[in-house]
Amino acid sequence: MNKSAKTLKVTLVKSVIGTIESHRACVRGLGLRRMNDTVVVEDTPSVRGMINKVNYLLKCEA
Length: 62
Known about the structure:
29% of the residues lie in helices and 24% in strands. It is of the alpha+beta class. The protein has a 3-stranded antiparallel β-sheet, with no helix packed on it. The protein is globular, with a radius of gyration of 11 Å.
């Protein structure tokens, strides 16, 4: 990751059980594996799109 790039801290707070496959794929694409798992990702339009798609499962901090 670039030092000057903005980052977001994303935490999976709700289970992916019972969600549709494309939403599970977004969660995996963000690098989240299990509940209460937290990752730091770059703030890019593609990452923002994935976060917006599954926002009901996540907690996001700047």
